[in-house]
Amino acid sequence: MAFETVILNRDGDIGMITLNRPEQFNTFSSQMAREMNAALAELDADESIRVVIVKGAGKVFSTGIDITEYPGKTATEYHEWISLMEKMHAVIAGMKKPVIAMAHKYAVANGAGLVFAADFAVISDDTQIGTTAINVGLLCTGPIIPIADRLGKKKTMEMLLSGDMINAREAEALGLVNKVVPADKLEEETLALARKLADKSPTAVRMGKEFYYKMQEMPFSRRFTYNAELFARLCTTEDAREGISAFLEKRKPVWKGK
Q1: Which family does the similarity line name (predicted)?
Q2: Which CATH class is domain 6-198?
Q3: The three-state (H, E, C) secondary structure of the chain, written as one string
Q4: CATH number of the domain at 202-248, out of 1.10.12, 1.10.8, 3.30.70, 1.20.120?
Q5: What is the pLDDT of residue 47?
């Protein structure tokens, strides 16, 4: 697929998707939403890629949905429109590979949703994050979904209904991002995390991600049953045997992803 609103790059076993509407502050048009999902799917299907990074071109990460697409739709069309914008949550959750959001300056509304949807997030220390749709009479209900359980009712309601921004340090304290770094170190630190993940067993990483998302939908006691099932499967893989052998032989493992 030829992309116009995102840029797709590969650097060894790390894939990079760049939101590329800098003049529109990387707001999500319908085209960009479709291309974003297609780029994620392409990298997930590429067996040479182990980790995916998503970043924004220009001055900001993303300031949400392109509201020039808002006027004149029917209820059915609005349903289709917002479903397209939120599809990235399901796409990322269903991917075999970890996705890292690399955000700078502003991650707002759907841009904040992308940070929350990603498996990991590294942001610059000057980043502001907000679920601000309430300020124009709408709601960031989609972006709130991945973080509501962590935040609890009070903070979730504040983010959903106040329209206030939070700074990078508060986002880190709330557990919404993994790391806050100086702006001039953002790419370096994000790539370091990507490299750390890429150096692990692809099989264990894939199954670990699978475990997290499936576990979220299970009752507490069922999670332990599923844990035993998944761990038993992992123990029978070539990567598990290689990892244990390498540890005992004091050498670096050679992963096969099997």
Answers
A1: Belongs to the enoyl-CoA hydratase/isomerase family.
A2: alpha beta
A3: CCCCCEEEEEECCEEEEEECCHHHCCCECHHHHHHHHHHHHHHHHCCCCCEEEEEECCCCCECCECHHHCCCCCHHHHHHHHHHHHHHHHHHHHCCCCEEEEECCEEECHHHHHHHHCCEEEEECCCEEECCHHHHCCCCHHHHHHHHHHHHHHHHHHHHHHCCEEEHHHHHHCCCCCEEECHHHHHHHHHHHHHHHHCCCHHHHHHHHHHHHHHCCCCHHHHHHHHHHHHHHHHCCHHHHHHHHHHHCCCCCCCCCC
A4: 1.10.12
A5: 93
